[in-house]
Write a structure and sequence with these properties.
Strand content: under 5%
Helix content: over 70%
Number of helices: 4
Shape: elongated
Structural class: mainly alpha
Oligomer: single chain
Distance between the termini: 26 Å
Radius of gyration: 17 Å
Length: about 130
Amino acid sequence: MLAWVHQTIAAEREFLESLFDVKSDMRMVGSVRKFEKSEEEEWIQELMDAAMCKVSVPLKVRVQQTIRSQESSILSFKIANLLQFYMLTMHRTIGEDALLSQTLHESVLSCRMSAGAALTMHPKNH
């Protein structure tokens, strides 16, 4: 689901840039996007946030279900690291203030807390 969200955001961003005739910043893949203070950029950010906010709740529910079902602290930490990768990717793509970025941040914290709790409950469970 996270990979689909990432792909969808990239496609939406590209579509909106072409719609508003915003020139691409020619950045390298994975590099941090520099958000310009233009009116068109603000529209794009607002539309991206509005389009992706509907995904935040189902994504959060899926992540919480996955976290709760884990008994292994190692697997919980792996999930937390995966979530952190996508959280940083979303920060670079749609900004830290977007609802989806905030949801991923909350999910990373929740997953880390769960992993810590699993570690204290089952210290020998790898």
